Amino acid sequence: MELVNKVIGDELQLFEKKFSDSVKSSQPLLDRIMKFIIKRKGKQMRPMFVFLSAKIAGGINDTTYRAASLIELLHTATLVHDDVVDDAMKRRDFFSINALWKNKIAVLVGDYLLSKGLLLSVDHGDYRILNITSRAVKEMSEGELMQMEKARKLDINESVYFDIIRAKTASLLSAACSAGAWSATEDEVATERFRLFGEKVGIAFQIKDDLFDYGQDNIGKPTGIDIKEKKMTLPLIYALQHVAPEIKRKIIYIVKNNNNDRKKVNEVIGYVKQSGGIAYAATKMQQYRDEALQMLHEYPDSPARAAMEELVAYVIDRKY
C-alpha cells in the first residue's frame, strides 16, 4: 500500500509511539505482555481507516490519534478475548496470549486493554468517539452470539447473515471511519456518511474472508474451516437455496454430523462451487465495494481519497 504509506506514513509512525505509551503499565507482568502484543501487532488497518477518514473529512488532529488508539485498543482486546473463547493457540503465526499465559491472565489482559481505551477517551472528554466505539463493541458481541445461536440450527438465510456480519465484523470498521470523521469535523452528517462507508467496506471484508474458505484467489487448497465450525457463510447459504432438495439435506447433514471429515467437507465445497455460490458471493462483495467507493466520491479528489481507494482495494484483493 504505497500510496497509503506516502499519505499517512508519518502519522502512523507517531501513532505507533502514542499507542505504545497508552498501554504501558507499572505492573511488571502486564507491561511485559503489552510489549509482546505491540511487537506482534498486525497491519493496523483500522487506524489507517481512522486517519484517512479524518484527512478526507477535514484534517488529522490530536483527537484523531486518540480515536485511532481507542479503536486499536478495543480491537486488540476483542482478539485476546476471542482467542480464549476459541481456545486458539496461535494468532498471526505467533503464540496467543492464552497459550503463553493461560486463560485467566488473557481475560484480564483483554479487560485491561478495554479499560485503557475507556480512560483514554474519558480523560480527554472524547465522549462522542467513546459513544461510537462502545456501540461497535456492543454490536460485535451481539453479532457473535447471534452467529453461535444460529450455527446450532443451521437456519441462517441471507438477510440474517448480513445482520450478523454487519454487527460482528463491519461495526468496528464503520466505527473507525466515523470516529475519524468526527475527530476532524464534529459534524454528524459527515460522521454518519463515513459510518456507512466503513460498514460497506466491512461487509465486503467479511465476504472476502468467506471466499478464502473455498480456496479462492490462488491462496491454495480450500480450508473448509468455516464448514468445520458450522458457520453459515454467504457461498454456503446461496448453495442451500439453489441446490436440489436432496442435495440440500445432504449438505446440512454433513455440516451437522461430518464436519470434521475432510472428504465430506470437500464434498460440500464442491456443491457450493457447482451451485454458483462462489460467484454470487464475489458479486456481492464487489457490489458493497462499489457502493462504498461511490460514497467516497462525494468528496473531491485528493491524495487522501486516492489512498483510501487503495486501502479499500487492498481489503478486497488481499491474499490472506
Helix and strand arrangement:
Blueprint: H1 2-22, H2 28-39, H3 45-57, H4 62-86, E1 90-91, E2 94-95, H5 97-124, H6 127-153, H7 158-185, H8 188-212, H9 225-228, H10 234-242, H11 245-257, H12 262-275, H13 277-296, H14 303-317
Antiparallel strand pairs: 1-2
Description:
- The longest helix is centred in the middle third of the chain and has 28 residues, at 97-124.
- α4 runs parallel beside α6 and α10 (234-242) runs antiparallel to α11.
- This protein is globular.
- It has one domain: Farnesyl Diphosphate Synthase, CATH 1.10.600.10.
- The mean pLDDT is 88.
- It starts with a helix and ends with a helix.
- It has a two-stranded antiparallel ribbon.
- β1 (90-91) and β2 form a beta hairpin.
- It has 14 helices and two strands, in the order ααααββαααααααααα.
- With 320 residues, the protein is mostly helical.
Short description, anyone?
This protein is mainly α and 320 residues long.
Describe the largest sheet. 2 strands, antiparallel
Number of domains: 1
Helix-residue proportion: over 70%
Overall mean pLDDT stands at: 88
* Low-pLDDT runs: none
CATH architecture descriptor: Orthogonal Bundle
The CATH superfamily is known as: Farnesyl Diphosphate Synthase
Strand percentage, roughly?
under 5%
Keywords for this structure?
mainly alpha, Farnesyl Diphosphate Synthase, 320 residues, 14 helices
